[in-house]
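Reply to dn_fold:

You asked what the input looked like. This is it:
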Amino acid sequence: MVKKFFAYIEKEKNIKRINVFEALNLRKNGQLPNKKEEAILFDVFDSKNREPVYPVSSSVNGKRAYFSYYSDSKRKGLAVEGAEMTTVHRLYQDVFTEIDSFRIRNKGRTITLNIKKKPTVEFMYRVSDKKYYLIDIMLILESTKPASYFYKWNGMLALEIYVTHQTEYDKVLSLQNNNISLFEAKVPSDIKEDVPEEFMSLEEYESAKEKLIQKYSKTNFELWGRLLTDVYPTMNTERWRRYKKMVKYEAEIEKIEKDMKRLNEAVKQLEERYRNGVIEIKKLNKRKETIISNTEEFEELKKYNEELNGKMAFMKSNYDSMEEEYKRSLEAKEKEIEEMKSKSLLSKFKKFLS
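and this is what came back:
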């Protein structure tokens, strides 16, 4: 059995929820009346069904702070949350009264909820004069994204916290029959493990609450769960017409976004081709420069070769002239030798005859 951690305080016709540690501080500062007839703390929000309660402080033997009913109350004894209301359940209730905007995840789709005013915790949803259901948190919405959900849900969404037990079938059916959408949020196991069974001080409680507020306030964090009731507006009403118009508009936006995504991909491909083209052109320009450089070098070599060929032709011409002259000189010498030989033989012959 989990003792009641929250109550509702009424001051100057304003009602708000407070936890037991806040109530104990008020009593310490003399801001809580002692008489039941003057009580300003009550167990539930609904003024027609509420009962006065008072805070009981923690004790040295480990007894936790809680709210209790007065001895002559219709709901005698401890003010009990009920078997399903764990500490982490109470903490989650309080967390989602402090967040202005958060995201829920249902069947793979993310929906952003922008809250219009501070949500009501333990909202009393009356079925008849004798029967009612307590909804963990009733969210009054400023807007949603996609926007069609705002019109679909008529600007409000019931939020149930699922820790150990799922939402009762009768409650789900009743909300469905009365056109109230209900989202059941499951508390992640890692968060359940981090939260103690009971808080011993306001500081400990506020620290745990702030940690969760920071987590769920992040734009990339989502509250996972499922829509147990996902009601549609009554046909041919103004709300139905707005909803249908918004759904059509969102479908057009989705198509445009897909087309834009496709075009952006095409642009990226063209940009990639352009970048590759620029790289290829740079390579070609470099190659061209190399060819030009090689051509210039070739022309210089060609010119040098022509000069060498000219020099070689000049040298060959000189060589040919020298060779002719040498041949003539050689022939003259050979003739001269022959003449000398002939003269020598003739002289010897004459001597012989004489």
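Confidence is low (pLDDT under 50) at residues 77-84.
Hope that clears it up.
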